[in-house]
Design brief:
The complex is a heterotrimer of chains A (117), B (155) and C (506).
Chain A lengths: L1 H25 L3 H23 L21 H31 L13
Chain B lengths: L6 H23 L8 H19 L6 H24 L34 H34 L1
Helix pairs in contact in B: 1-2, 2-4, 3-4
Chain C lengths: L8 H22 L1 H28 L3 E4 L17 E4 L1 H24 L6 H20 L3 H19 L6 H32 L4 H7 L4 H17 L8 H8 L5 H21 L7 H24 L4 H25 L5 H38 L15 H14 L6 H16 L1 H26 L13 H19 L1 H15 L5
Antiparallel strand pairs in C: 1-2
Helix pairs in contact in C: 1-2, 1-4, 2-3, 2-4, 3-4, 3-10, 3-13, 3-17, 3-18, 4-5, 4-10, 5-6, 5-10, 6-8, 6-9, 8-10, 9-12, 10-12, 10-13, 11-12, 11-16, 12-13, 12-15, 12-16, 13-14, 13-15, 13-17, 13-18, 14-16, 14-17, 15-16, 15-17
């Protein structure tokens, strides 16, 4: 039972990443594809945070902390950096979609394939 | 941009903008003690810009100012990092910690209530990042609002 | 504590482009001339520090640079928890390649991008890409690798879409962005797997405890696919032709150099982290298969192109194959006695080909951009007779083209000869395939040269391109000529230290 409890976040990670990949691969709307990327991103972030989790440990902040063991701070730092990068990439991709909509008049990924012509 | 939300929304926005900005600045300044820091605080401050854009629609062209603040913040950040080398240590060396200057207090050992005047260059870098993120996110929101608005007109 | 600029040069290679990237928008407020000057100073300072670092590595020895440490040069157990940069022969080889290309592309962009608005952002993105690639190459920390990977992706996507009144460049940038971001996220996943197992992110610290279990293999496969995709190796090459074709001509060599940078990182991770925990013969075989596929598919797709930039883009995919093939052969012989006979030679050939390829590919892309700049068309069926009005561009294209085709005495021949010699001993059929690909490449270069430059003057060209563009191509041509004249010297002074730096001694 206990091991199942610990495996649950990782199951969720797999579900999120597969959901995100499905969205990117099979949805035609570019905005939805970007949402799929964001879902993958959240899955990976959840994976990093789950790695750091230990039962009964507290967050690694010394300010007014209770006197118990603390979890490893590195995965949290990695997750924060990943979130910051995620904001930048999402904003850039959305800007590209806005420009594509202006040029092509559509956000359908099947109709925005004109490089090969 | 020429939409305008109702009087209720605009009044609530006016009331809420100041506390949001103050809370964002609190997060930035306390970044080395509690969860928060430059990016998180900057994002909170930038959310006030989002509120203003949504409530008032028309928004003066601050593009150049945002862009300048962003560049200044980042330049000072990298400069603080390189100053570590120039003072004889390495990149990102924390030369301000424990010197007694601004944010130069000694960090207390173990669990402590949190002394704000510690951390050396870390709080300074948090402030620079806070400036940068505030300006950059505001700029992104403003540009997106502007371009999606002009798209409606074309269609 | 004392100021030691030589020891700090890896940090400056990263810090100077970052600082000047953020200074250019501020300088633009004052005047356009100051903005251009700031960009140029940043670029030249970066090249200078690359030269300082490389000179120190080649004459003395490499060192590790630890961020945030109080004392320079001191490595303790604690250093492995900080961000670490390694300045060794391999990093020197890679940063030299990046610096030469960046210098060419930077000087070229002054005249090429003239008249575009928002140039301060162009320079910012350019310097950020430079910092990102240098960071990827120099870092010895898996998470730092992810950060620089993403910085490179974001900045180079901005560069691809810079001329955004054309829908196609935005489309290419969005395609590149999707692939880079999803690739980057899976890279982060594999980093998480390795961190969860070993609790540390430094390459050297992981290499001490890596055991080659299932988790390691999954992480290694993900890293191989992601970096191979970024390096545009077949079958993960689908983004490359679109991006190389639609990006502004001045930055196309720079996008290509991010690919080479990913390849450098892939080789470093394979050699440093996973060398003792996986079967080198099997992994080397995989690299050989990827290399053969890239060579063959790249060159056969190039056969049917009528767009000059697209054709060179496919040739560039096929050149990536040579490096994968040569390094794959070298990697697969690490465990057995063949390393001394031909494995080291294969590695030397592969690494020499990387630096050669970075330079002559940049030259080819820039001269293709000069054609577009002067005539306004990329279609080979419409072009013709450009040699009458553009004699210098013709010469530069010829030198770059003969070098990519491996015609003696140019530099491409020297590195390909090393590759042929070594892979022939591994398996003769590989050398035959490599030769056939080389011959087809020569035929394609002949086709482009004949179609675009020879024949009667059709009056398409507005005349020779501006002087700064010629200067940029001239610098790259000079490098190609130097590499062609002194291949022994280059191999002994630059390439052999790189092979030795990866922990491989013959």
């Amino acid at each position: 039972m206990n091991s199942l409890f610990y495996a649950l976040p990782f199951v969720m990670v797999a579900v999120l990443i597969i959901m995100g990949l499905y969205t990117v691969l099979f949805k035609r709307n570019l905005i939805k594809m970007i949402m799929g990327v964001a879902i993958i991103q959240n899955g990976v972030n959840l994976f990093l945070v789950s790695l750091a989790y230990r039962e009964g440990y507290v967050a690694p902040i010394w300010t007014s902390a209770p006197d118990v063991d603390m979890v490893l701070p590195t995965p949290h730092a990695l997750t924060l950096t990943s979130i910051v990068i995620g904001v930048a990439t999402t904003a850039l991709m959305l800007s590209f979609v806005i420009m594509l909509k202006k040029h092509y008049g559509t956000t359908d990924s099947h109709e925005t394939r004109r490089c090969k012509e | 941009m020429n939409w305008k939300m109702s009087r209720v929304v605009r009044t609530v926005t006016d009331v809420m903008v100041v506390p949001i900005i103050v809370f964002g600045i609190y997060l930035i300044i306390h970044g080395h003690l509690t969860p928060g820091g430059g990016f998180q605080g900057g994002a909170v401050v930038a959310s006030s810009t989002a509120l203003l854009i949504i409530a008032y629609g028309s928004f003066r062209d601050y593009k150049k100012d945002f862009s300048s603040v962003e560049s200044i913040g980042l330049t000072l950040f990298i400069f603080l990092a390189i100053l570590g080398i120039l003072l004889g240590a390495t990149l990102f060396y924390n030369f301000g910690a424990g010197t007694g200057g601004l944010f130069g207090g000694r960090v207390a050992e173990g669990i402590n209530p949190g002394y704000i005047n510690t951390g050396g260059t870390v709080p300074l870098m948090n402030i620079m990042v806070g400036l940068e993120v505030t300006a950059a996110l505001s700029l992104i929101l403003w540009m997106m609002a502007k371009s999606s608005d002009s798209m409606e007109v074309e269609a | 504590m004392s100021l030691d600029l030589v020891n700090a040069s890896p940090a400056f290679i990263l810090g100077i482009p970052l600082l000047f990237a953020f200074l250019t928008p501020l300088a633009d407020r004052i005047s356009k001339e100051l903005r251009d000057a700031v960009f140029m100073i940043g670029l030249l300072l970066t090249v200078l520090f690359v030269a300082v670092m490389s000179y120190e590595v080649f004459t003395a020895e490499g060192w590790a640079y630890v961020f945030g440490a109080e004392e320079t040069g001191e490595i303790t157990r604690f250093s492995f928890f900080r961000i670490m940069f390694v300045a060794d022969g391999f990093a020197a080889l890679a940063t030299i390649t990046v610096a030469i290309t960046a210098l060419g592309a930077g000087i070229y962009s002054f005249a090429f991008m003239e008249g575009q608005t928002g140039m301060e952002k162009f320079y910012t993105l350019f310097l950020l890409t430079l910092a990102g690639v240098n960071g990827m190459i120099l870092t010895a920390d898996l998470f730092n690798l992810f950060v620089w990977f993403e910085v490179t992706s974001i900045a180079s996507c901005g560069l691809v879409a810079f001329i955004n009144y054309k829908g196609k460049s935005v489309e290419a940038a969005l395609k590149y962005m999707f692939i880079s971001v999803i690739g980057g996220l899976f890279l982060l996943l594999s980093i998480g797997l390795l961190y969860g197992e070993y609790g540390i992110l430094n390459y050297f610290a992981i290499a001490e405890s890596v055991n080659g279990g299932v988790v390691d293999r999954v992480a290694l496969s993900i890293i191989l696919v992601v970096l191979g995709m970024k390096a545009s190796s077949v079958p993960m090459h689908m983004w490359a032709p679109d991006v190389y074709t639609e990006s502004p001509g001045a930055v196309t060599p720079f996008i290509a150099i991010t690919s080479l940078g990913s390849l450098f990182v892939l080789f470093r991770i394979l050699f440093v982290v996973f060398r003792y925990s996986v079967s080198t013969a099997a992994l080397g075989g995989l690299l050989i298969i990827l290399g053969l596929l890239s060579m063959f598919v790249g060159v056969s797709m190039a056969l049917k192109q009528s767009d000059v930039k697209r054709l060179i883009a496919y040739l560039s995919v096929s050149q990536i194959g040579y490096m994968l093939l040569a390094v794959g052969v070298g990697f697969s012989t690490l465990e057995n006695g063949d390393y001394a006979t031909f494995g080291a030679l294969a590695l030397e050939g592969g690494f020499f080909h990387m630096i050669n390829d970075g330079v002559y590919k940049a030259l080819l892309f820039l001269s293709a951009a000069a054609i577009v700049y002067s005539t306004g068309t990329r279609n080979l069926n419409k072009l013709g007779g450009l040699a009458h009005r553009m004699p210098y561009t013709t010469m530069f294209f010829l030198i770059g083209g003969l070098s990519i085709a491996g015609i003696p005495p140019l530099s491409g021949f020297s590195s390909k000869l090393l590759i042929y010699k070594s892979i022939y001993l591994y398996h003769p059929i590989l050398a035959i395939i490599a030769l056939v690909v080389s011959i087809i490449t020569f035929a394609l270069i002949g086709k482009v040269f004949y179609n675009a430059f020879l024949g009667p003057d059709l009056g398409l060209s507005k005349g020779e391109v501006p002087t700064t563009m010629l200067l940029a191509m001239g610098i790259l041509t000079a490098v190609v000529v130097v590499f062609s004249l002194f291949p022994n010297y280059v191999v002994a002074e630059i390439v052999v230290p790189a092979v030795e730096a990866l922990g491989v001694t013959a």
